[in-house]
Design a protein that fits this description.
Helix content is 45%, strand content 22%. The chain contains twelve helices and eleven strands. A five-stranded mixed β-sheet has the order 5-6-7-10-11. It has a two-stranded antiparallel sheet with strand order 1-2. A two-stranded parallel ribbon has the order 3-4. Helix 3 packs across helix 12, helix 5 packs across helix 8 and helix 11 crosses helix 12. The chain is globular, with a radius of gyration of 20 Å. The chain starts with a strand and ends in a 15-residue tail after the last helix.
Length: 273
């Protein structure tokens, strides 16, 4: 294993020091920004369009309600010591002076309403009461960072739950439901299968399996409406799909942002439909 890692901007870091620093969210999301390392999220932008990637690099990620909800749930389950860093405001609207003052004082990413807190508490309580879900955390590590060069590109990640040499388990919340679906051929699948495709979770599964050198990847899913729990293992077909997406994202990045083989302004799609 190399002692150093070369970032996208050609900066070289001591790997262990970088991994230690990545435990700090400001370092992970700030210093290791888009100019220094790729991630699952930025690879999704590349797959959507190289123009979209370039746009998002300038604009930055927009905080959605789903992202806010997911952050609270993750912190309460996986990093409860950091959950205490949040400020919760008793307000019915984010347009009130009370909310604006709290946001200015504590920061938008650290300020939540009591309604958001109660929603997260309900979801987390359902998760922690489910023995099958909690079993993945026993004798496992949580929020484990990784920084690896794949095909010459620095890629970062943070595993929700890692049992070294065995598996990664990723905690997800969903609004799409966990309904069982009977296919035309009589086979039964789950609605989450389509959520995997919708959000490129297959890319994350394969990428993280490579970053952490584990054979298996699981999703621990909580339905935000019903608080039902779903536990799903990534299949060989899902992993292969993720591998294909990873290779495509790397090829797009190199073509447009490393070798600059294609002028981004001239990028277009064509064909006969």
């Amino acid at each position: 294993m190399k002692d150093t890692v070369t970032l996208l901007n050609h900066e070289e870091l001591n790997l262990q020091e970088a991994l230690d620093n990545m435990l700090d969210d400001d370092y992970y999301f700030g210093y290791l920004n888009l100019d220094r390392a790729l991630s699952y999220s930025t690879m999704k932008w590349l797959l959507k369009s190289p123009k979209w990637y370039a746009h998002m690099k300038k604009k930055g990620m927009t905080e959605t309600q789903a992202l806010r909800d997911g952050t609270l749930v993750h912190k309460e389950i996986l990093e409860p010591e950091k959950y205490n860093d949040f400020t919760f405001v008793d307000t019915s609207s984010k347009n009130t002076k009370k909310w604006q003052l709290a946001k200015q004082t504590h920061g938008a990413d650290k300020t939540y309403t009591l309604k958001e807190k109660y929603m997260a508490n309900r979801i987390v309580s359902a998760f922690l009461q489910n023995d099958a879900a909690v079993s993945f955390m026993k004798k496992a590590e949580t929020e484990v960072p990784a920084l690896v060069e794949i095909d010459g590109l620095a890629i970062r990640g943070k595993a929700d739950i890692l049992k070294p040499g065995q598996y990664i388990a990723d905690v997800k919340t969903t609004n799409d439901g966990l309904k069982e679906i009977v296919l035309r051929n009589g086979e039964v699948t789950n609605q989450f299968k389509y959520t995997i495709e919708k959000y490129d979770y297959d890319l994350q599964a394969y990428l993280y399996a490579q970053l952490y050198n584990v054979p298996d990847f699981y999703w621990l899913v909580i339905d935000k409406t019903t608080t039902d729990i779903g536990i799903f293992k990534a299949s060989e077909a899902t992993m292969q799909s993720g591998k294909n997406k990873l290779e495509a994202a790397i090829a797009i990045y190199k073509a447009f942002f490393v070798d600059e083989l294609i002028d981004l302004s001239q990028y277009h799609k064509e064909g006969t439909l």
